[in-house]
């Protein structure tokens, strides 16, 4: 509603640096990049939902422009003030790519906080004023008491266990019991659960401000929205939908409160970031910010018709990441989230886009990637690439840079095939669980460059992976055309829900097999939120638009599926106390002085005889030598055969083998605490079909 505001603020020229709105004791400095603009206005609003500005400040090029930046200082303007920009200039899109539109109110691309309750995406897609349906920026306070908090660079990479989760969906279900569901502060209330689970980092699906209305026509009317958040428009602003008080400019404070609380609990924070495209879409998409201030700078445009956006993302546009200004924007944004928000890492969506030069071709020495690699501010920050894009560029094992982690899609795919029962995969399974030397050793990288995962937000949940052969995305209202058709899943005999006790038991066992393989592998494991309690999406493998029970964490599941939760917790604890599962260098198989076993020895059904060339093989075993004097050696058996078999145990000169894990066992015998383990005196053990068995020697 319209607010009354009688104060008219005085101004002076201000400074071009830093970009965005920067408050001080004297007022607020505003700076905006727009190289080809001919006229710029700053509009001040009394409230987030105010329909008319109480003051319009016209900027003159002689006074308020330095190089490519327009700037003004508003004296005594308080923190919490709302603002937008109006920018005019040439509109000859086909020839130059300029898309200036004086009628459109624009967000500040550097805004630290935005509000969207007036937003109408449709109005922003067409010519004409959208002053009453535009988003607004808010001047955020820079004051905050961190109580000595710093980013958690102290967590060693090899001990890392990542938990990928959706901020809103984690606590939005009525069963969550939190006071602020679906918010940054709601996450704080669930920290004890995360600590007890044993993960070291949460990886948050996009939390930079995104457009929930960015969906195909007709979906909003059906109650669907852009739930996952891969539609960013304001990269410096926390998403207002996850804030309790965004209208009051509390974005930064509430996000910091969450980070500080997670850090106090020893948990790192990794952000899933989307610098490959923006919410503005293609030629028919809305004008939000970048199109209106520098369309030809920020996006890849077709050189023959610059009204056409090159699309390497499948989302309508592609950010021109290696343009000098855009590269600096991205680096500055990342450094801001580390320096000012204490974030511990980033996972880059469709990261291969960031390797594309201004002509669209891949570059190994892409400036933006190497600037990230060598940034002093980011030196202790985790950087993780989804090393592919939607135009066919696939760089797993070859992503530019040295310290970048990579989502290992090859690991995911071979483990899915192996566990569902495909034969002849033993050699590659061994490569993947032992650190992916074939991918990383030749380029002087480490096992820690591999981010191992079985599932992620995109695709089946773990329980659906063992419950469905086919996707069931009808509720997405795209006639089940969306989502991948190649899930490498197996339903254990029945599609979806069943009351067959044998099938339900096999599904649980298969889920435990996946979780065990993940946490017994060299590299960094990533667990998808809810997999530890067998969360289901009823076969939907593309729940990007399901801001409802389909996409939410059901907090009744930890009790319902407590056996799986217990199994996962103890697996994480098992991994933590076995440094032989967390090597920072590749395994060699060589004898080591003072050790009972080499770092790895491979076996088949017979000891020391792995079935590398057997096209029917479905079994792999290995002995892992202890790294530390106090640590136990491990004997691991992966049996995806449909029959049981008798496996000999390696002979030891001293000590005995103790059964630690058997995924075919009923809880609590599926994973046994160290104090409760029993010695296995027999020279062999019976391994059940489709099961994983692990012994400890002491």
Strand order within the widest beta sheet: 11-12-15-16-17-18-19-20
Estimate what percentage of residues fall within beta strands: 15-25%
Task: Give a short account of the largest sheet.
Answer: 8 strands, parallel, barrel
Low confidence ranges: none
Tally of individual helices: 17
**Which percent bin holds the helix content?**
10-25%
Average pLDDT works out at: 96
Distance between the termini: 72 Å
Overall outline: elongated
Number of strands: 28
Give an overview in words.
The chain is elongated. The strands form six sheets. Strands 11-12-15-16-17-18-19-20 form an eight-stranded parallel β-barrel. A six-stranded antiparallel beta sheet has the order 21-22-23-28-25-26, with helices on one face. A hairpin with a 2-residue loop joins β6 and β7. By secondary structure, it is α/β, with parallel strands linked by helices. It is built from 17 helices and 28 strands.
